[in-house]
Amino acid sequence: MAIAKAERLMNLALCLLGTRRPLSKRELRGSIEAYLEAGSDDAFNRMFERDKDDLRELGLIIETVENLDGDTGYLARRDSNRLPPITLDAEEAAALGLAAKVWQQARLAGAASGALQKLRAAGMPEAEDTYEVHSALEPRIPVHEAAFEPLMLACRDRRPVTFDYRKGNAATSEQRQVEPWTLECWRGHWYLAGWDRDRGAERVFRLSRITGRVRSRAGAFTTEVPDVVTVRETVESWAGETATRTALIRLRTGAGYPLRSRAVSVRELGNGWDELEIPYGHGLDAWLVEFGPDVVVQEPADLRADVVDRLRAVAKD
């Protein structure tokens, strides 16, 4: 469905950019196969108006003019839709090259590589890749979850989805109906932020806990999508970034360096254990479980109980 729409939008854009005179709806319908297959004039009109609005949202400047015979025509003048010359210095080119490498493990690898090739063909300088030559570290955003691609497309196209989701302290999955807003990578894990229709509230889902297939649903969103900053703050908060208090844990000596880097204080206990005071926010219990037997929660009691519940759920699996 998404591919068919993208092809239809591309054909419409090419028609509008390739004409020297305004084209009427009748002419456009006769030139684009997807419009010819529309069941009725009303279906075509609705499809065309949506496509025209989508192209304008993507940045294409479409003019509406009246033809000599009185019909309304449409065209996209090349001079109005031509980008200015792109000038990048060596440092900017190096930054773009580094950014393109980030997506080598994801579906966006082809798009990132293609964009880089087009910029180089347009005259972008070939910068020396110091990261590749002199460093063993390379930027990566790992994407192993099968849910990433369908959710990325659903976020882009503003399409509701359903999927089965297992919470960290639950033994079984349950179906969720979600209006997806955006995907965020935090501490090597991907999270989806969106509107949970069943709960009537904003929720964040960790992609690794989505089981089965992500299924698209027809219809429009029922709530307004927040701005990017708000969504990112929500993801960080649900993932444990926003701390509201502190927790006291015991950590095995030589283990848990990410925890040590966030510790407010560290005290040696002896016998191979240290005591750490760390910021405590929503989602800390899920993070602590990842360290297994190297972490023991001392306080608060509710955090300790949450960690125990998660460990028991994992043991049942």
If you had to describe this structure to a student in words, what would you say it looks like?
- This protein has about 325 residues and is of the alpha+beta class.
- Helices cover about 40% and strands about 25% of the residues.
- The protein has helices at about 1-20, 25-30, 35, 40-55, 90-100, 110-120, 130-135, 150-155, 230-240, 255-260, 285-290, 300-315; strands at about 25, 65, 70-75, 160-165, 175-185, 190-195, 200-205, 210-215, 245-250, 265-270, 275-280, 295-300.
- Strand 10 (about 265-270) and strand 11 form a beta hairpin.
Question: Would you summarize the structure shown here?
Answer:
With 317 residues, the protein is of the alpha+beta class. The chain is built from twelve helices and twelve strands. It has a five-stranded antiparallel beta sheet. Strands 10-11-9-12 form a four-stranded antiparallel beta sheet. A three-stranded antiparallel beta sheet has the order 1-3-2.
Described by its quaternary structure, the protein is single chain
Strand content: 15-25%
Low-confidence stretches: 130-137
Supply the helix-strand structural class.
alpha+beta
Helix content: 25-40%
Specify the biggest β-sheet. Answer: 5 strands, antiparallel
- Overall spatial form: elongated
Number of strands: 12
Give me the side-by-side strand order of the main sheet.
7-6-5-4-8
Number of helices: 12
Helices and strands, in order, run as HEHHHEEHHHHEEEEEHEHEEHEH
User: Distance N terminus to C terminus?
Assistant: 36 Å
Radius of gyration (Å): 26 Å
What's the overall average pLDDT, rounded? 81
